């Protein structure tokens, strides 16, 4: 936030929406591009920022704001125009390399955007994160602003520092209208970021079924892989945000046998994140089988290591999976629960016959792992349950 007490009268007047004071100061030839003490903001940055749905907090005895709530928005729009008319530099950047156009887009003020573009604002300007005003529109669902900007865009698929396009940001934020607009204007549905993640990965991870359908309609690949070999389906199982998303991706013929770079399949990821509802969806609706991975780890191991995994543990035990199954390094689910201090899962395992004095390939019992990792509550539980402290 700006500390207005130390700022110039012009920036104060702009911030509080006092257009008469702004006019008076400009008539006195005050510097229209005055740089604030904070963030290298100029009056035009402030006006563009306030031109959307922003409403400044007024002091009880403040005389700075002479506009009513009803016309405050119009006042800021007029100030944007006035500042441009009196020589404000429309492409000047603040300390984050944001231009007034970035601010107007973030405030979802299409009228301010229209004015700035009329004064040759650069629609392709980059901030410190290499984001253009179109990226900002996609992040804040400023659809009308984007419509105005698109005719000036040199590359609709321009990427930011993370390699993410405007379409990727729109998908992550669930902005259907924005996604539709970008695709209609030629955005690449299969463009990827630095981690090889595509817009459909983000839509799947966040659970936006409507966006998945829209992306597929425009050629998105449901089996595309990121750098960690996650498909959109694996991403959806990892997040567990929407069972409908998982059902849709399977119906769209996603590969249900795919595994990540760490050799985790859809069940491993769902259990690792404690999504018992996802496990039920995969088991009962799609009749998929559960298996250990190449290291011998079963979804039950993953469920036991998750803070929210107790329900998954109960579900898998109810399906008669062995509570004492070994991975290739001879770790049981109890070893994993002890290692991560998941007492709730350990209690479920123990009540269903899990052994607590069994050793892994390194000779460690669950008690060894709990103690060496500072899991005090787990140590207490294991000792109370009969763990041998002399092994």
UniProtKB/TrEMBL annotation:
Name of one Pfam family that matches: Ank_4
InterPro entries xref list: Ankyrin_rpt, Ankyrin_rpt-contain_sf
Domain of life per record: Eukaryota
Listed transmembrane segments: none
ANK-type repeats, residues: 96-128, 162-194, 195-227, 295-328, 329-361, 362-391
Assigned keywords, A-Z: ANK repeat, Repeat
Keyword Repeat attached: yes
SUPFAM superfamilies: Ankyrin repeat (SSF48403)
Keyword Repeat: yes
Protein name: Serine threonine-phosphatase 6 regulatory ankyrin repeat subunit A isoform X4
Source organism (scientific name): Brachionus plicatilis (Marine rotifer)
């Amino acid at each position: 936030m700006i500390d207005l007490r130390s700022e110039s009268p012009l920036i104060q007047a702009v911030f509080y929406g006092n257009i008469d004071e702004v006019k008076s100061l400009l008539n006195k030839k005050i510097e229209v591009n005055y740089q604030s003490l904070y963030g290298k903001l100029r009056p035009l940055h402030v006006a563009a920022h306030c031109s959307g749905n922003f409403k400044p907090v007024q002091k009880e005895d403040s005389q700075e704001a002479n506009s009513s709530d009803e016309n405050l928005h119009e006042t800021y729009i007029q100030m944007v125009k006035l500042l441009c008319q009196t020589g404000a530099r429309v492409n000047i950047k603040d300390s984050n390399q944001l231009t007034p156009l970035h601010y107007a887009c973030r405030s979802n003020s299409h009228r301010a955007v229209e004015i700035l573009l009329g004064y040759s604002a650069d629609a392709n300007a980059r901030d410190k994160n290499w984001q253009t005003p179109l990226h900002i529109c996609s992040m804040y669902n400023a659809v009308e602003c984007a419509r105005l900007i698109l005719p000036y865009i040199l590359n609709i698929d321009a990427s930011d520092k993370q390699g993410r396009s405007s379409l990727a940001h729109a998908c992550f934020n669930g902005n259907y209208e924005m996604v539709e607009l970008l695709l209609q204007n030629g955005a690449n549905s299969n463009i990827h970021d630095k981690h090889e993640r595509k817009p459909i990965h983000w839509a799947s991870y966040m659970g936006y079924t409507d966006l998945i359908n829209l992306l597929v309609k425009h050629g998105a690949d449901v089996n595309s892989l990121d750098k960690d070999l996650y498909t959109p389906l694996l991403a959806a199982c990892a997040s567990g945000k929407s069972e409908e998303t998982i059902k849709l991706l399977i119906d769209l013929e996603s590969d249900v046998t795919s595994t990540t770079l760490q050799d985790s399949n859809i069940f491993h990821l769902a259990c690792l994140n404690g999504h018992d509802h996802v496990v039920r969806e995969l088991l009962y609706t799609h009749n998929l089988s559960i298996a250990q991975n190449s290291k011998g780890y079963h979804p039950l191991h993953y469920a036991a290591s998750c803070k929210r995994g107790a329900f998954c543990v109960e579900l898998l035990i109810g399906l008669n999976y062995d509570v004492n199954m070994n991975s290739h390094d001879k770790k049981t689910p109890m070893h994993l629960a002890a290692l991560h201090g998941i007492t709730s899962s350990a209690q479920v395992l123990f009540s269903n016959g899990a052994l607590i004095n069994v050793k892994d390939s390194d000779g460690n019992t669950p008690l060894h792992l709990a103690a060496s990792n500072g899991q005090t509550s787990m140590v207490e539980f294991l000792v109370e349950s009969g763990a041998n402290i002399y092994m």
